[in-house]
Specification:
The structure holds two protein chains of two kinds. By secondary structure, chain A is α/β, with parallel strands linked by helices. Chain A is built from 13 helices and 14 strands. A six-stranded mixed sheet of chain A has the order 5-7-8-3-9-10, with helices on both faces. In chain B, helix 10 runs parallel beside helix 12. Chain B is built from 13 helices and one strand; from the N terminus they run H-H-H-H-H-H-H-H-H-H-H-H-H-E. The chains are: A alpha/beta, B mainly alpha. Chains A and B meet through helix 2, helix 3, strand 5, strand 6 and helix 4 of A and helix 1, helix 5 and strand 1 of B. Strand 6 (about 105-110) of chain A pairs parallel with strand 1 of chain B, so a sheet runs across the interface.
Chain lengths: ~350, ~280
């Protein structure tokens, strides 16, 4: 049985309409008008036990709303969700025993106290007896390198140190599944790399199912094996990271630098950047042979340096974000709104 | 599916024991957080006692000039202050978020509590202590000591009366704050109810008319946190104490029901948050 199942999951919020004009404003005091805002429109997917899934989308796409419905914080207005065999809306308290959460914007640690005190209280919240808690704390202190700030008030920690503690705190009850909502938001590159490594290790050591939203491509590439992209409340892509990256493989960026100025006229290719001695080209490998392009560039002058890079995943995802709906994404050949099984079957067939 | 869970429920025994442990640990953590700023704690502690003592001076002068007010002499007024102060203080020491609940709901701060395997209502209310409330809590006991010396039975009865008083205070304030789920912002209702309840509790019952007393034993339950406990205390009538606990249980039940009904309408939020 999959760890997480979403079936036509929907959420509609009621928002008060701001009236224009004084009379309308007065009337709205007595009889306010509301309009429906459909934040999530029938999202469906399945996630297997132990899968590492990135849940992506631009701001306002419905990511946080979906994750909150899966955790029982919000009640869906349509469809259903099952997490670890439980209905999050009805069995939230029971579910929370088995599910950890890290919300980059919300802390579960006491701001004025050291992590040691928060962990102790979390132990009693999760009903872990004191011996087990101490054993688990020792393991997490070791794995997450928390010893230097274990007894330092959270307010004195850097954001990276705090998120590290948040992540360790979420793993204290040994959750079966971990939900993360932008866990690396605001972190510097070093702290981000550390958090990603710790997440990947948590998934490997504890075989934890990870469901993560992030705007950071590094988080997604380093931690996740599958990507679900949601846009305007609909799933527009659901496929493996390999398949998503393969989209970027059809486009390469070739950069060249010569010892002296050269003439760089290549049939069907124009440089995206150009100086007298250097240039970079975007090569669509379905139309041009990469080997021929490299050979042609090497023959044009005294070559000092040549680089060939994949298109950044960010560009691929940005292009998907620019689509307006699931239907449009499907028209573009994206693997929209498919279940996990279908997505993986497609991946296996193409492998 | 949940058979695979690594941290099953009930390993420590009954729910009650688990909640008692949680409340104890939350209390310890809150106390530690308070004592992180000792000077602030001491200033607020003694400041609140001084504030309450100023009212004692006012009543001393008033009753000295006019005699009993509404059937209450100076000792009655002091006892009612002691009872209300300790009950109010205890409510805010143990359930420090009780008058922050509306803001927390409005700003989406319930998320953290909803993600934990403890009842969200108890969890959120017990996750903070109010520093100045420690002064209120202590003030009542000091007044009691000044009025009754070291009479242990009176001390026990006073404490037994302060507990349902604290529960009624907390339940009433929490109910007003829970209206945020339905109104979007219930701060005006909540502030008014707090003011009414404190003001009505601190004046002699005899000054209120018949209609007003109905209100004071229902919507603004000053009768159950001040007047009735005072009568029980004066007559040393332990028999009525269980009744006050039943009334407290009813208020807690109603407040909890309102919160649960509202929770279905919770809309969360994305505000940056920290637990302090």
């Amino acid at each position: 049985m999959p760890a997480i199942i979403a079936r036509d999951l929907s959420k509609t919020f009621k928002t008060k309409v701001r009236p224009s004009g004084r009379l309308a404003a007065l009337r709205s005091l007595v009889k306010p008008e509301y309009r429906d805002v459909r934040a999530v429109k029938g999202v469906s997917f399945e996630i297997d036990d132990g899968e590492l899934v990135a849940f992506l989308g631009p701001n306002g796409a419905g990511k946080s709303t979906t994750i909150k419905m899966l955790m029982g914080i919000l009640r869906p207005t349509g469809g259903s969700a099952t997490v670890l065999g439980l209905d999050p809306a009805e069995d939230r308290v029971e579910l929370s025993r088995y599910v950890g959460a890290v919300f980059g914007q919300k802390s579960q640690l006491w701001f004025h106290l050291p992590p040691s005190d928060s962990f102790r209280l979390l132990g009693s919240i999760y009903e872990i007896d004191d011996d087990d808690r101490r054993w688990r704390e020792a393991e997490l202190i070791e794995r997450f390198g928390l010893a230097p700030y274990w007894d330092v008030p959270v307010r004195k920690l850097s954001l990276g140190e705090r998120i590290r503690c948040e992540l360790a705190a979420s793993l204290l009850p040994s959750p079966v599944a971990l939900f993360l909502d932008e866990p690396t938001i605001g972190l510097d590159v070093v702290a981000k790399r550390e958090i990603r490594q710790l997440l990947a290790e948590a998934a490997r050591v504890d075989d934890t199912t990870i469901f993560m939203t992030s705007h950071d491509m590094g988080d997604i590439e380093k931690v996740c094996k599958r990507a679900i992209i949601i846009h305007h409340g609909e799933v527009v892509v659901d496929e493996s990271m390999k398949a998503l990256k393969r989209r970027s493989l059809s486009r390469k960026y070739v950069g060249v630098r010569y010892a002296s100025p050269v003439d760089l006229e290549l049939p069907g290719l124009s440089p995206v950047k150009r100086t007298p001695t250097a240039a970079s080209f975007e090569v669509d490998t379905s139309r041009h042979s990469l080997a021929e392009v490299v050979r042609a560039l090497a023959s044009r002058g005294d070559l000092e340096d040549i680089t060939v890079e994949d298109e950044p995943l960010e560009n691929v995802i940005a292009a998907i974000y620019e689509t307006r709906s699931g239907a449009e994404a499907q028209a573009l050949g994206l693997n929209a709104s498919k279940g996990a099984g279908a997505a993986r079957a497609g991946e296996a067939a193409s492998a | 599916m949940l058979g695979t869970g690594r941290n099953g429920p009930g390993r420590l025994g009954g729910r009650t024991r688990a909640y008692a442990r949680f409340l104890r640990d939350a209390f310890v953590v809150n106390l530690k957080a308070t004592l992180e700023y000792r000077v602030n704690f001491i200033m607020q502690f003694f400041g609140m006692m001084l504030n309450n003592a100023a009212f004692a001076a006012f009543w001393l002068v008033l009753i000295g000039r006019t005699g009993a007010v509404g059937g209450y002499g100076f000792s009655d007024v002091m006892l009612i202050w002691a009872l209300v102060s300790t009950s109010f203080g205890l409510a805010h020491v143990v359930f420090g978020n009780v008058r922050q609940l509306g803001r927390i709901i409005m700003e989406g701060g319930l998320d953290v509590y909803l993600l934990q395997p403890k009842d969200a209502w108890i969890n959120v209310l017990a996750s903070r202590t109010v520093v100045s409330a420690w002064g209120d809590l202590a003030y009542g006991f000091i007044v009691l000591a000044l009025m009754n010396g070291t009479n242990l039975e009176r001390l026990a009865l006073f404490t037994a009366l302060a507990v349902p008083g604290a529960l009624i205070f907390a339940a009433t304030f929490a109910a007003a704050e829970s209206l945020t789920f339905f109104m979007g912002n219930s701060s005006a209702v909540s502030s008014a109810l707090t003011e009414f309840m404190l003001s009505f509790s601190l004046y002699p019952e005899g000054i209120y008319g018949h209609g007003m007393r109905w209100i004071l034993y229902s919507i603004v339950p000053s009768g159950f946190v001040a007047f009735m406990p005072l009568r029980v205390f004066r007559s040393l009538d332990w028999g009525l104490v269980p009744l006050l606990y039943l009334v407290a249980a009813a208020y807690v039940g109603l407040s909890y029901w309102l919160f649960r009904a509202g929770l279905r309408r919770y809309e969360s939020g994305n505000r940056m948050d920290a637990r302090v």
